[in-house]
Amino acid sequence: MRAALYRPFADPWRQSMRVYADQLHVHLRQVVDGTDTVTLLSLPGARLSPPARYWDQYVRYQRMTRRTAADVHHILDHGYAHLAAAMPAGKIVVTFHDAVPIRSGLASFGTRRALEIGMRRAAAKGARFIADSEASKRDAIELFGVPESSLTIVPLGVDPRFRPSTDRNALRHGLGLTKPAVLIVGHTQPYMNVEGALRAAAAARESVDLEVVKIGAPLTVEQGTLVEAEGLRGHVRELGIIDDERLADWYAAADALVYLPVLSGFGLPVLEAMASGLPVVTSNTGGVAEVAGRAASVVDPRDARAAGAALAAILSDDAHRMTLVLRGLARALEFSWRQTAERTLGVYREVADGA
Q1: How far is 102 from 144, CA to CA, in rounded Å?
Q2: What is the pTM (predicted TM-score) of this model?
Q3: Distance of alpha carbon 11 from its chain centroid, rounded?
Q4: For the segment 236-264, what is each residue's pLDDT rounded down to a tens digit?
């Protein structure tokens, strides 16, 4: 069996898509047998800025796809479902991660239309769909008419590099941490609710002195203004995008992750944090709630006071903190990229066999 995996463009703010492509490829190569090949493809010289991006994504990439011979064609990001038009019917797999751009209203009319056409065309050509979570599965059915019979839930995994530090004090010293550190990880689009995370940190700071560490996209001007208004000036450190090794260090050294999206398809930072022994305050809705289970403090993402109280409890109650640490470590053991690869390979085999 020959499987071709189609990587999305390398958008710097979509780190989870990079992780998914890289980790799935690595682990698929470990679980296939000697007669199988797995190839990760990307469009050479892909441009990220419009209008050149549209030409590359919707014309050049499709041309390349049409020339690719494989028994299974796996589109790794549903935003590229339009590539199915250039693939043989019945030999297509599409991973549907989430409907956030649609649910949030942030996607332009053109983007929404292209996504809908791509998804429905893939379904019409008999594609199999992989969803990250039950929440993603429901959205694929409701918004794009994907038949439930063609959907398989395959959760993402967690890299073994995300683990507790063997010398947390030394790690904290090396990172310059002298007080409890609260991580906010990811980009800053409205549905990520960075504002709610900042307000939660400000509420917790009424009882616990703390520092906020923002990893990923820089705060917007409006979010910077909120930092001032909430009394967090001088207590927020912005790191920008960092590599996975440094990210693992911060997860292992910090004291809590606050991750409060109002929409989510999975929630990779929550899983990575729990695997690192970092307690988590997260949303009680969407895919992220499925990932967290009972291993995190889950709150209404729009209730900053409740999130702040949950955060303060983690930072001030050692017994409560340790309970969440142990639950998080146990929960993280239920996810692995090898398991993701094995389940994905199972879908490939069904597609290749015409099942």
Answers
A1: 11
A2: 0.94
A3: 13
A4: 999 999 999 999 999 999 999 999 999 99
